[in-house]
Amino acid sequence: TEISRRVVNMAKKTNPGMKMVIKYPNWYAYYQNTGYNLATQPQIFDGIYTGTETRDAVYTHQNLQPYQSYSIMRYLENTAPGKNGGGWVDPLARRTLDRYSQQLALTLFAGAREITLFHWAALYKPLPSNEFLSEIGSVAGNTFQWVDSFLDQLGNPTGLPVYKPFNSSGESFLTSYLGMLGLSLELTPHFPSKGNAVLLTQSAAFDSQIVSKMEQFLSAGGNIIITSGFLQALPAEEIDEFISASVEGSATINRGTNLRFNQIFSFGREINIPVVQAPTNDCWPEVIGLSKGGNSYPLLTTTTYSAGKVILLTVPNDFSDFYALPAETLTGIKKYMI
């Protein structure tokens, strides 16, 4: 924050009419570790800009899922409404051209005012068979032409609020995995004052006022969805106010049931999950997974608090294991997350 003020003041002393914009990279979960401060910098600079490049989701060390090209734009827009100039995309670290095209389209779907294509050398590089035709440039042009045919018909982005306070971390980038399941999510640094529901991941536990905010939201009739990571992050005496549950060890599951528990569905692979323990009848498992040996483990648990509900989502230890859940299990989970 101090360096930002010094740089901006020095620049404007040299040229009072200039505009200073800070471009934020794609690793929003770790800004506080790398010299960025979303709580203060947007007020210092004239504008902000968003790195929406997600690149390959499997082989790059960040494992950024495609949905993040959308969700990080929404997070920065909610951080500084009206000051987010656009999205920054590069064609690097990808295995397919489709991956580049998707980043551009999702950035626009999130309401970007403009897109910066980084960088010129990559865009200009011609195909081996045609020195006048750029592979990357053609993909960008075709994508923009396609999206432009309906972009003006889109409304304002909306979705289930996901509360990530400034300078917080925990269950990093989980939002993008959930978005890939077909959930519409709105990542925000502000706890909603009212609404039907809000999702709290482990990052939300960084808010020292989170308990009182939860009490007010639930008392007003809203539902709060918490993850198993959030459950573990809050001290027991605080989380017990809302749900008498704890995480005790882990288990491997390979099957699940539907909402009526009258059908069993096989998973795409074995999944390792934290084991949620909760008192019978005070809490109710709405979606469960089954181990090879026959034990059942809750994947989604509900309980009542005041005028609302607390909904506990069990998050696999490997976030990508969400993709191995069958449609019937995912439908049961998503029923409680809209």
Task: Annotate the secondary structure layout.
Blueprint: H1 2-14, E1 21-24, H2 41-44, E2 47-51, H3 68-79, E3 84-89, H4 97-109, E4 115-117, H5 120-124, E5 126-127, E6 130-134, H6 135-148, E7 160-163, H7 174-179, E8 185-188, E9 197-200, H8 210-219, E10 223-227, H9 228-233, H10 236-239, E11 246-257, E12 264-277, E13 284-290, E14 296-305, E15 308-313, H11 327-334
Parallel strand pairs: 1-2, 2-3, 3-4, 7-8, 7-9, 9-10, 10-15
Antiparallel strand pairs: 5-6, 11-12, 11-13, 13-14, 14-15
Helix pairs in contact: 4-6
Report on the structure:
- By secondary structure, the chain is of the alpha/beta class.
- It has 11 helices and 15 strands.
- The chain has helices spanning 2-14, 41-44, 68-79, 97-109, 120-124, 135-148, 174-179, 210-219, 228-233, 236-239, 327-334, and strands spanning 21-24, 47-51, 84-89, 115-117, 126-127, 130-134, 160-163, 185-188, 197-200, 223-227, 246-257, 264-277, 284-290, 296-305, 308-313.
- The strands form 3 sheets. A 9-stranded mixed beta sheet has the order 8-7-9-10-15-14-13-11-12.
- A hairpin with a 2-residue loop joins strand 14 (296-305) and strand 15.
- Helix 4 packs parallel to helix 6.
- The chain is globular.
- The model has no long low-confidence stretch (mean pLDDT 95).
